[in-house]
């Protein structure tokens, strides 16, 4: 499997199209703009129906006393939000943060290390990268099954290996230990994510200006100096983007936690998404679930603000 | 920040400066580290494969043997003899396929507009579509559920296809925009100067060039739809269920799961994704970076 970044003139082509004087299009007046708007309209309509309306409407539900199984709803204002805040909201928030940051930092470190290794110009780099991408393309539920089976308390291969090595006497059951369960979901999620981060970092590494690296070498700088003064600074943008995207995705991750632990034991792996899902579709309390959503979006607006402040030149 | 750089591992030297003298110890250490990491990274996949071809009575031996001593394919056979699983598979193919085609058509028009026209609000549209990355899926599900309920669409394929659009529409739009950005504007301008109407430019000039990009975007959308869990778990019942929630319902009940069968079924579930992935090879890395970074 050879996978190369296809050589693209993307950078220059897109830059050209953006830099081209507006009159190249504007000369033809309104009709051009109308064409452009007509082309984008179906997507905007679909966007409004499946994304914008559901987002606003779901948050709106949070202001009502509303159930999934009985009709009627009553406006209660911020009562639901207060209820959620009064019941161990700090715990919910910190579990979400632990999962999101753990599942972001762990694969990042592994993937960055791997990318640096693969970037040493070893033979078969492309093939290795292809093979290593495999965990990333597996469906999330399949990844969950895999780790459930590996950590199985009765017949799991992990218990088998640890006992063979004499490291444990009794089989481990991570599913009954709060912190081990959290570790499990983080490890499983990280295992699925690291290939994506690796590919991103490799792409970034290959864009590091070589003449700068050589200049540092010529000045007698060693590997560490090159890394610290050239590689790391030129990767700043991509590191920021990768970490932020990962954080956003992990913040709302649902399926692997759900399949691996159902948020247990005793809520130890219940993050925002699991809490919201359970409240809405198992306790049928839509109002309260919407309130969880309101708080969730409030918390999320911090990284979003960060992104618009520091990341905007990467959009468009 | 564009990551879509010219990368040819063969022709481009590694970004570490060429060292005239190779240090053998360094090489050995490098390879040893790589070998260990690759082993850890791929062991779970190996274990899935090994379990799926191990006879049942051996699977539940403890401690497990790391290499199956005898091999069977009966667990794969069971998948194809279970009507419920086959039904889930058909549903998965249908829903992911329709989603992919729909998403590509709608997003290609949008991407063309966003890539090749200048107008006020263009940037805002990009921002808006990008920002959907942070809309929590579980939260959207509340209103989507109520909406589908009101229109009698719960437990239909339509509900699944529409809900899959929440992630395929932004994804395809960015993949397609990245693709259109690589097509020189001159191609279109030449046609305009020749006096071709916009409709002809779109269908006769642009469409043929855009097809590879559309195939790539469609495969991406198919993979994402195929892997969805939360929507198919919630919005539809038994008859419209897709494979991921189907496997969970079928195997993770109250009793000890039938692990060799589940591993075989998991591998079967993965096969279409792997095929799509291979077909994508050329675009894959690029799409990954285009879709998320440049987006």
TrEMBL record, chain A:
Top-level taxon in the UniProt lineage: Bacteria
Entry membrane topology: Multi-pass membrane protein
Subcellular location as annotated: Cell membrane
GO BP, one annotated term: transmembrane transport
Alphabetized Gene3D superfamilies for the sequence: MetI-like
Pfam family, one: BPD_transp_1
Bias-annotated ranges (Low complexity): 10-19
Transmembrane segment boundaries: 35-61, 97-118, 130-150, 182-205, 226-249, 286-307
Organism this protein belongs to: Haloactinopolyspora alba
Family annotation (InterPro entries): MetI-like (IPR000515), MetI-like_sf (IPR035906), UgpAE/MalFG_permease (IPR050809)
Coiled-coil region(s): none
The protein's name in its UniProt record: Carbohydrate ABC transporter membrane protein 1 (CUT1 family)
Ranges for domain ABC transmembrane type-1: 93-307
Cellular compartments per GO CC: plasma membrane
UniProtKB/TrEMBL annotation, chain B:
Major location category of this protein: membrane
Entry annotated with the keyword Cytoplasm: no
Pfam families with a match to the protein in the record: BPD_transp_1
Lipid bilayer topology: Multi-pass membrane protein
Entry-linked SUPFAM superfamilies: MetI-like
Transmembrane annotation, as ranges: 28-49, 88-112, 124-145, 157-180, 201-223, 262-280
Region Disordered, residue ranges: 1-20
Record domain ABC transmembrane type-1: where: 89-280
GO CC annotations, alphabetized: plasma membrane
InterPro entries associated with the record: BP-dep_ABC_trans_perm (IPR050901), MetI-like (IPR000515), MetI-like_sf (IPR035906)
Keywords: Cell membrane, Membrane, Transmembrane, Transmembrane helix, Transport
Gene Ontology biological process terms from the UniProt entry: transmembrane transport
Intracellular or extracellular location(s): Cell membrane
Domain of life per record: Bacteria
Family: Belongs to the binding-protein-dependent transport system permease family.
Protein name: Carbohydrate ABC transporter membrane protein 2 (CUT1 family)
Species this protein is from: Haloactinopolyspora alba
